[in-house]
Amino acid sequence: MFHDILVAFDGSTSARQALTEAVELARCNHAALTVMTVVPTTNPWALGGGYYVPVNLDELNQQAERNYERLLEDAVVIVPDDVPVTTILDRGAAAAAIVEQARAGHHDLIAMGSRGRGDVRSLLLGSVSHHVLQSSPVPVLVVHACDHAEPEPMMTAAAASSTT
Q1: Where are the domains of the chain?
Q2: What is the 3-state secondary structure (H, E, C) of 20-59?
Q3: I need a surface site. Which of 27, 32, 153, 161 has the fewest CB within 10 A?
């Protein structure tokens, strides 16, 4: 059913559970995985709350990129050797980058966690998973973080209907 699964990964608990679900789907379907993370653009105004704060943005961006590269490396470690996996590190707005990669990479499923940020930040900035669900050209598997051992995947009806 699926041949090339894109996993949006931000290191959160729900993203790790989404990766676990994607690995199982890849194994069942003999599919390849692409694990992607997106380095957000640093907004200099957010750093100082509108006040001048002497910061080297290039250095800050390089450090952020190194952190996200490590995040990808940690994610790939849990993928079994029998599942082909590639990684992508992109920059910018996460939702737009994920949807663009789904299109450009000809992926047939996006797997992602339901929340990477806290509830308050999500209310202010919008949920990445919500934006991806609204604009994805392929089905989206959204995995919610849960306390027990088995992750609870959820594919929206709108996303599921695009497979028929």
Answers
A1: 4-161
A2: HHHHHHHHHHCCEEEEEEEECCCCHHHHHCCCCCCCCHHH
A3: 161
Q: What is the pLDDT of residues 7-32, one digit of tens each?
A: 999 999 999 999 999 999 999 999 99
What mean pLDDT comes out for the span 30-57? 75
| Cβ atoms within 10 Å of 72's Cβ, excluding its own | 17
Distance of alpha carbon 144 from alpha carbon 132, whole angstroms: 15
Quote the pTM value: 0.78
Q: What is the CATH number of domain 4-161?
A: 3.40.50.620
CB 11 within 8 A of CB 41: no
Residues 6, 105 contacting (CB under 8 angstroms): yes
